[in-house]
Design brief:
By secondary structure, the chain is α/β, with parallel strands linked by helices. It is built from 10 helices and 14 strands. The chain has an 8-stranded parallel barrel with strand order 1-2-3-5-6-7-9-14, surrounded by 6 helices. Strands 8-12-11 form a 3-stranded antiparallel sheet, with helices on one face. GO terms for molecular function: oxidoreductase activity, acting on paired donors, with incorporation or reduction of molecular oxygen.
Length: about 350
């Protein structure tokens, strides 16, 4: 059994055929798609965060709105770039969104990927400390955030406050109990997956990974997940961790599907350069449901995860993307015992 949700990058453009032509369009359509997927029986609505781009960038207002309009599905990010984040302000926003949703927030964070501008985090007021890399800065922000999530007081109260304080040191409010267990880290390497486990965070593994062995993407991803689970066990955490993987999967069940994705049936893994390392990009899947079942049954990465996030072409509109998710839930998931 797997949780199945969608992952949207939230693109918008005025290009021909785009139904998300503005930021307002993509925000309102994201809420509507989350409502539609909940009604279809899906399990999650997740959103990518990219700064300085015509894509979704400010997750917490969106997640709070979805939390207020839905009642069951998980809502989350995949992922927030921690190089850009003030941990205390982020804690307030995350706590509020989680409380509004009734504790359904699944917050994916990471070091982030290459952005639209050079060192964009500098424009947000952040820069690495002396002798610190930007990746180390992201991890430092994360360490502060995780510590604050414990909900312990740390700030000295004013002796003459405007409003009465509870006794002792004060914490950031609002605090949402349990959110600490619902933090995920997007890991691109086996070493980072092990670090994620040591920190007590769940693992997000996307369709991109450091090419560490030259093996097919799904095999490397399965080994990454195994390394994460082994490190989790060694760390002695009490709860069971969660692992998500994302995939582009399209069941060709009508003429629209064939027109949009019928030419992708021969997709394969790709090798490329990201920053200063060689990366392997997982293939897309587009086929008749019967063929999809056979192909996906061989995917070792999906088999090792408990959560599958379906990347959706959000510019094709709410109705079509709901159809994409429904097709997987209806024709593919039951055949693979995901449902």
């Amino acid at each position: 059994m797997k949780k199945i949700g969608f992952l949207s990058f939230g693109h918008w453009s005025a290009s021909p055929g785009s139904q998300a032509r503005s930021a307002a369009d993509v925000l309102t359509q994201s809420i509507e798609l989350a409502e539609a997927v909940e009604e279809l029986g899906g399990d999650g609505a997740y959103f990518r965060v990219h700064h300085f781009a015509r894509q979704l960038a400010s997750p917490f207002p969106l997640l709070a709105a979805i939390g207020a309009r839905t009642s069951r599905i998980e809502i989350g990010t995949g992922v927030i770039d921690m190089r850009y984040e003030n941990p205390l302000y982020m804690l307030e926003d995350a706590g509020a969104a989680d409380l509004i949703s009734g504790g359904r927030l699944q917050l994916g964070i990471s070091r982030g990927s290459p952005e639209q501008v050079i060192d964009g985090w500098r424009y947000f007021g952040y820069q690495p400390g002396e002798g610190e890399t930007e990746s180390e800065m992201a991890r430092h922000h994360t360490e502060v955030f995780l510590e604050l999530l414990k909900g312990e007081g740390f700030a000295q109260p004013n002796p003459r406050p405007m409003f009465a304080n509870p006794p002792g040191l004060l914490r950031v409010e609002p605090h949402s109990e349990g959110l600490r267990d619902r933090i995920w880290w997007g890991a691109a390497s086996d070493a980072t997956a092990r670090w994620t486990a040591e920190q007590g965070m769940n693992l997000m593994s996307s369709t991109l990974k450091v090419d560490e062995t030259g093996e097919p993407f799904h095999v490397q991803q399965r080994k990454q997940i195994e390394a994460f689970r082994e490190a989790w066990k060694e760390a002695g955490h009490e709860r069971e961790p969660r692992v998500s993987v994302s995939r582009s999967i399209f069941a060709l069940v009508d003429d629209r599907d064939r027109a949009y994705f019928g030419g992708d049936s021969g997709s394969s893994d790709q090798i490329g350069q990201i920053d200063n390392f060689q990366a392997i990009f997982g293939r897309s899947f587009a086929a008749e449901p019967e063929m999809l079942v056979k192909q996906l049954a061989e995917d070792e990465g999906i088999a090792a995860a408990d959560t599958l996030l379906l990347t959706v072409p959000n510019q094709l509109g709410v109705e079509y993307n709901a159809h994409v998710v429904e097709s997987i839930l209806k024709y593919v998931a039951p055949e693979l015992s995901w449902r």
